[in-house]
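Chain X:
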Amino acid sequence: VDLHLAKAAYIGLERNEGPERLGLHQLAFTEATSVEEKIKALLGLVSYYSSISEYGRAIEFGKQALSLVASHPALDRYSCETLTLLGVSYFTSFEDVTLARRYFQEAIQKSKDFMDDLKVVRVLATAWHYLGRLEDAEGRSREAIENYIQSEFYQEQCPDELMSVAFYHLRMGETLMTAGVMDHAHDHFIQSQRLFHKSDNRSTGEVQLNLALATYYAVQGQRQKAEEVYRNAIQRAQNKGFVRGELLGLGSLFGSAA
């Protein structure tokens, strides 16, 4: 099961969506024999469907995982990741932001019992990160920045997490740009870019960074540069099968040309 999930994660580095990656996640679930393996396989499916914007399926599998964890107290450490992934799906889909906040807060509370587990610490950093994104989406820049800093505090306890730190700088840059602090926003974008280039696991991060940079250039009145970077982001999204990123890029490109 772990081998199938690891291979699926590796394939996801190059292409977000595809039958091979999905097939490995399904195979992991089919071959799972223990409850712990079933939970791992379900969480893999949650991550996969969330990454391709099929949030209904992600939430469905997340609830199954949460039910299994709840009925097996010895596996309670998996509740932190399950709650966080459910929160991500509810937040990113904008289906229920209030419920997303509750899931993130529950994950943070649960994690206190498992701080000796680096996997849980990584999940804790993710929960704080998405709480920051939630605050930013609701226009509370100060609270967003505080949550991002809290996320980075836990992220620094996890070795070799370049991509996560790159995302930290990306979100900080977006929040500062929204607040009108453009110079500092640009500094964070450049730091994010540097870290994504150093990381072997770039995921969809570079696409998201290019979208943010293009928006930065548009706000600064550099329309031609903005359009160039939007087109680059769209091309990268298409190459990775990152449909949501492609649509965001196209919408932004047309908006900038209007």
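Chain Y:
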Amino acid sequence: NRRIIRRTHIIMSKFSIGLLVALALSLPATQSRAQSGVLKSIIEDISDSVEKVKEVDDLANRKNALRKVLDFSISRTENFYNRLKNLEGLEPGFVDLRESLLSSLEKFLAYYENALAALEEAREAAVVKQIGVEIKNWRNEIFNPGIEKVIDFLLVFQGEEFLELANNRFERISGDLNRLKDIKLLKKFRLQGLLGSSSADLKQAKELISEAKEILLSASDEEPENSIQDLVELTLVKIKSAYKKFLEINAQLKELLQ
């Protein structure tokens, strides 16, 4: 834990909250599928770096190249650790799951630190090469499956946070419409219909995120019909649809009140 606290250089991952907001509120629905490629992108970034180490011949350059890979991997893993650690308001079952995931991340960090120490002690290029091979095998067998679980966890609760924001927006708009007295004008401008449609979007988003949470807690080895990342992606699509209707309601309200 001291190593985690000591390091302050955190590299922001492609899977940042800002990206998810963009997916939810601004990008076309067809582009939102990019979110499901987040894990692949993160893994390929590290894989490509390890492969490049093989192209370096002399000992000093080979060690420097692999050192950069390990520093990058440690920063990425710390990023996930801090994001997971800072989640608040989790239900009991998810608290236990988070602690398990945090424990896995601590083991990943320890592995990388040990690999870094072994690298510094290496005096032959062949030894450095072997360390790189061992890291690659460990990553494929241990790290990648573990980090996928962490990403799934973070995606679900960030998606739930966006849903809560959208529900709050819905309640404010609904309250504004209820304060308008001229129901005929409301019908004329289709405001009630838009409100009902946005409500349906948010209801479906809640069902999708609930399904994702059930999968998180499931101990089944069976592959679910929809992956967690797919469910969160569909949740964001529904939230985006609701926001489009919020904007249309606001535009028509301005026209109504002129």
